[in-house]
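Handout, section B. The chain below has 262 residues.
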Amino acid sequence: MISIDKLAYISELRKANPMEKFIFSILTMILCISLNNIVYSILVILFMAAVTVFKGKIPAKSYGELILIPLVFLVIGIVTIAINTVGNSREVIFSFSIFSVKLGCTKESIFMASKIFFKALASVSCLYFLALTTPVFEILTVLRKLKAPKLFVELMGLVYRFIFVLLDTANMIFISQNSRLGYSRINTAYSSLGKLVTSLFISSYKRSQDIYTAMESRCYDGEINLIEDKFKISYKNIFIIVIIEAILVAISLSKNIFGGVI
């Protein structure tokens, strides 16, 4: 899978002020969580996807692959919310019994599961917009300007980088094993997987030590200093952000249009 950082660097929104993108993304996510409105969540999902793909010029296939990752976990999670003990409720849509326990779905449980599903997916789409249009070091710069704890920012940057070191090491080991037919049969596949995990731990630890040594040789003293690009404040973008948020909130809260059901 293409690195998220690579997609962020090729985005057409890469040169936009990261503070503006950060505020827009986080503000939209906060409104999505606080309003708890299905209409608003759906509008946010569609709008964020459209801006990221069409305005940011991120390949639709790559965006689809990324959105499928949380989608799988969300589907599994909402099933446990939609299906619960129903007893003798008359609002049961369908039910089944397991060891004398009656389980099923009601209108209320499906509605609640739908709310959580769309709200979570909308929040993820907000974060994807930020991650796919803003390189991680610019996000760290924004957090520094917002006076986030220095230790938190440094750990966030290091952990993010080491994740890709881990994935890169695992990929190289897998290619090496696969080229030697290490996954041709089930028995050899299990054996190769065990060796991969062992080698991955040792190799990743060694590479992390090498990276830390390289940082120390460049006078690392516990703080990572980055060259920051200077961005101008765009009052036009700020105005557009305010208008977009106002329109989304107005549509989602318009009970006359949607009948007050959602």
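Note. The first helix runs from residue 4 to 10. Compare this with the example in section A.
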